[in-house]
């Protein structure tokens, strides 16, 4: 039998920390293999979160890589307060001004040809919709992605994801193919001591052609694989990848959940090489911490999909409150030239990380772009053996010292720190974070 108590008389909040954690252990589903961060977070502001003891913790992950403008940015707070009392949620086939205005604003930030926008809630959802459109437009069903990819946990997006374990869930969507991630720090193909990514890409697509049943629909990729280990595609790779897709009648989907909207120093990471995707997906940074995602494509692809009966009518498609927040994000980014800010602060962060690498033998590689940077920890620079346990200790020590860093905890990348501070982070906060990381590296080495 179910509970018979009246919830109106039993709803209460945990008072002590012990009670809080006991309640959490009793009632929460653990949605990842790593433990929850050992702190009760009470509030957040700017580049810091504050725990129940009042301790300030510098946030070098922007929440879940999303709080692009920092926590509780005044413009976002004002927008939510104003909008929630006017328009929060509508029937999915009703339109509001924030939705249309955000679609137009996004198109204005993009190259010609990316003019059609659909607003959704999460990155996995936007990738789901993009893959669905690619299949409908091309008539194919095969989707290719990198072996360190992460595109979400929903059906088609999860099937195109290889950066986390796929064991135990049964069959995935048929037709998913995988190629090696072009990792210049750990190259599979070398020539004259350098990463020969062209030979690697040629070999990869030769394997795709052998595996394909003649129904290729799309390649989905991040310009910088963030969850996969902050792996930036080598210069020229994206251009060559687009050509491989065009030769096979495939669409190129670029997932800029973590790289889009100024984080890497350009409005979009693909602009660094001048390649225009057939479909672009945005999420995390678009809502600056609130759930908002977008699919952007061309008139041609939108028209074909519409003529063929495209349907993706989710509960929160075109929600006005989320759209109003997204429009505020785009406006703040444009008015304050945050692309230039990300380049400037990113250069400072990278210089600091390279300086740490010069003094700490465990720092094997520094990589990334703008305010998305990563370091790979190794036990030995010659062998490049990943320093998994060491990285975990550094993470815990950083947190004890007041810095939250994220170490990627997936196969093949569990010794890699991701650093994505808010674009509103100050130079002093960057320097403070680097100082804490320096202290943590020194402390953990000292423990032996």
Commentary on this structure:
With 448 residues, the protein is α/β, with parallel strands linked by helices. It has helices at residues 7-10, 17-27, 62-65, 74-84, 97-109, 123-138, 155-159, 197-211, 237-247, 284-287, 299-307, 320-335, 338-359, 388-401, 427-447, and strands at residues 41-45, 48-51, 56-59, 116-120, 142-146, 176-179, 190-191, 194-195, 216-221, 224-225, 231-232, 251-255, 279-282, 293-297, 363-369, 372-380, 385-386, 403-404, 406-407, 416-419. Strands 4-14-13-12-9-5-6 form a 7-stranded mixed beta sheet, with helices on both faces. Strands 15, 16, 17, 19 and 20 form a 5-stranded antiparallel beta sheet that branches. A hairpin with a 4-residue loop joins strand 2 and strand 3. The longest helix is centred in the last third of the chain and has 22 residues, at 338-359. It is globular, with a radius of gyration of 22 Å.
With strands numbered from the N-terminus, the spatial order across the biggest sheet is 4-14-13-12-9-5-6
Nearest-angstrom radius of gyration? 22 Å
Mean pLDDT: 95
| Uncertain ranges | none
Instruction: Decide which structural class fits the backbone.
Output: alpha/beta
Q: Measure the end-to-end span.
A: 55 Å
Number of helical segments? 15
Measured as a percent range, the helix fraction is 25-40%
The number of strands is 20
What share of residues are in beta strands?
A: 15-25%
Largest sheet: 7 strands, mixed
The best one-word shape is: globular
